[in-house]
Amino acid sequence: MKKFLFILFIAIFLLASAYVFLSGWTQIRIKPDSCGIVKSKLGGLKEKPVLPGEFSWHWDFIIPKNAKLEQFSLLPYSAEKSISGQSPVNELYTLLYNDNMNYSFDFSISLAIDSEAIVKLTQKNIISSNDDLKQYLDHVADYVCQLTASYYLTKAQADPNFKPESVKRSELIRALSLYEEYPEIDVAVLALRDYKIPNYTLYNKFQNMILQDPSLLHSLSPKVQSDSGVGTGASGSSSGSGGANSYTPPVQNQNSYEEPSTQEL
Fold this sequence. Notes:
With about 260 residues, the chain is α+β, with helices and mostly antiparallel strands. It is built from eight helices and seven strands; from the N terminus they run αββββαβααααβααβ. The strands form two sheets. A four-stranded antiparallel sheet has the order 6-5-4-7, covered by helices on one side. The longest helix is centred in the middle third of the chain and has 29 residues, at about 130-160. The N and C termini lie far apart (about 75 Å).
């Protein structure tokens, strides 16, 4: 009888030990190319991420429904973004040259983030799930592409021979000061697939012509309106507001999650 009780005690002890160990053994739950963050009702948010292949054990899981292991993907976030718009333009210029000063940029972008950065974002309540992380990275991708388009337009205004493809990635990242805004994000890929830049050379010539002889506005406006069928009022908007030299392209505020003027392809 004593032998039976001893064996029973050993069996119960082993089963209890196995339950405790397996309950707290966390890294076996993590998928490849992912990390986990332990959220415990009693222990709070754990600072060290759980990584696959790296032993991790947490007592929080011994108590039923006390803890949750939130998983986040560590794979790079890739997207294609299109930035388009219209530079401020004199209406008379548009009527004379049939040019609306439209611009467009098509980007391929890939962003990477490590597990330590994910923990920090979670601690700041910026993200709480993998879906939140995707939304956050998509916001950063919008922001980067907006800044890049603005940089290209500014360079094009200053130099009529400027070609966006001549800008190296390292130069672009440095010029955008991206890592000051998002130090936790690594821009793995930022490729310009296609673009259209307004003809700033022609527009600057037009602006200079008007500045040298403002009376041209009054002499050209009636003729252009008559030829194009435009009603009166064009001369009222041809005061040069939005000249190319004064244009500053829009930049998305990184502190806001408001949708920028981009659309995902």
